[in-house]
Design a protein that fits this description.
single chain, 404 residues, alpha/beta, Nucleotidyltransferase, domain 5, eight-stranded mixed sheet, six-stranded mixed sheet, 15 helices, 40% helix, 19% strand
């Protein structure tokens, strides 16, 4: 069974074609700048060569046409006919309280994803476009499955996901913590349990998905008991352009002083804060690191704030879990920023964490493995996340269940 995995953004579309039999990635690529004259598709050939082509992609349907052409390309294509694609799996950011697992797409599912759009205004509408565009290009007979970022977090107890605001706002609008990056947290927590060779039900894990968007999750017995992101991906600790959680009065104070609308303040907190806002340099950690190396005090402060905040979340989840067996670093910065891992783990020495600093310094660009030393009280692991594989596995399981 060949499964096409899709991650549709508002102006982008990433894809992978995976052979579910041996979990081999047959093709992967991305469409960028959808809706503009500068739209293009980039993809890797079976031999690993990178190809980039301009294409007309005024909407997601045209983007899928470009994906189809790339998959069927006579010279570089991975398949000879579209009928080889057995199913399509989609990443969907917000499933709210409706979905605690992956589901087959139907009209009711689409309606609920659309209903939840206010909780993920940049993502859910794009996912709907992607699903509908898939139907136009691949036909109604190809089953489609949606895998929700929020689903893994639906095991959180009320005391963790509720906010201390009037209860009526939860009843009226569903205002609560939903979390994000659930597919990634699920993958690395399951992988960590496998690596530790123990019964997942007995393990207490803290998974750290650190990238331009970041979240930390406490997993007890394979189930989430708390996570850092909240109603939206703005919650938690500082990120590339996001402020993370802060005193709510900051919002009203800035709005009053600057005479800003709620939307304008939201723009500041979502797109002008975090590493970028504090450093004044960039949202890209590589640029911030370079500036810090050249003596930029604001860049240094931004990093110090980030390391401190990550360590605080890990510490709080140590308490919430009643101890910890393993800590996982993953995603862009988690996998490729040795200094971040080292500095965070320095804070955690009080919990008995010890890491092999020599190996940690070399662990980047695909290098994974155990970061902690044999005498560390908590195992610390670097695991490359693979959300696409989770989507492919769920899609395969759901589609196969339809045949029984």
């Amino acid at each position: 069974m060949k499964i096409l995995v899709i991650n549709a953004g508002s102006s982008s579309l990433k894809y992978q074609l995976i052979d579910a039999a041996d979990e081999k990635v047959l093709a992967k690529g991305n469409c960028e700048r959808i809706g503009t004259d500068g739209a293009f598709i980039g993809f890797k050939t079976p031999s690993g060569e990178k190809i980039e082509r301009k294409a007309q992609m005024l909407d997601h349907t045209q983007a899928f046409e470009a994906v189809k052409d790339a998959l069927l390309d006579k010279e570089y294509g991975a398949i000879k006919d579209l009928s080889e694609v057995s199913a399509i799996g989609h990443r969907v950011v917000q499933g709210g309280a409706y979905f605690n697992k992956s589901v087959l797409v139907d009209d009711d599912v689409l309606k609920k994803i659309e209903e939840l759009a206010p909780l993920a205004p940049l993502h859910n509408p794009a996912h709907i476009q992607g699903i509908k565009a898939c139907t136009k290009v691949f036909g109604k007979d190809v089953p489609q499955v949606v895998v929700f970022d929020t689903a893994f977090h639906q095991t959180m107890p009320e005391k963790a996901y509720m906010y201390a605001i009037p209860y009526k706002y939860y009843q009226k609008y569903g205002i609560r913590k939903y979390g994000a990056h659930g597919t990634s947290h699920r993958y690395v927590s399951e992988k960590m349990a496998e690596l530790m060779g123990g019964n997942r039900d007995d393990l207490k894990l803290i998974t750290c998905h650190i990238g331009n968007g970041s979240s930390i999750t406490a997993v007890k017995g394979g189930k989430v008991i708390d996570t850092s992101m909240g109603l939206t991906p703005l919650g938690g600790f500082m990120m590339g352009t996001r402020s993370g959680s802060l005193d709510p009065s900051v919002v009203t104070f800035i709005a009053e002083k600057e005479n800003l609308t709620p939307q304008e303040v939201s723009e500041i907190l979502n797109k002008e804060s975090g590493l970028w806002g504090v450093s004044g340099v960039s949202s890209d950690d590589r640029d911030v690191s370079e500036a810090e190396a050249h003596g930029n005090e604001h860049a240094h402060l931004a990093h110090e704030m980030l390391y401190y905040q990550i360590a605080k979340f890990i510490g709080s989840y140590y308490v919430a879990l009643g101890g910890c067996d393993g800590i996982v670093f993953t995603a862009g910065l988690g996998e490729n920023q040795p200094k971040l891992r080292e500095r965070v783990c320095d804070y955690l020495e009080c919990l008995g964490v010890k890491i092999d600093k020599e190996f940690n310094a070399k662990a980047l660009h695909g290098v994974t493995g155990t970061l902690s030393t044999p005498d560390s009280k908590i195992r610390v692991e670097l695991i490359a996340t693979d959300e696409e594989m989770v989507i492919a596995r769920d899609t395969k399981a759901i589609v196969e269940s339809l045949k029984k």
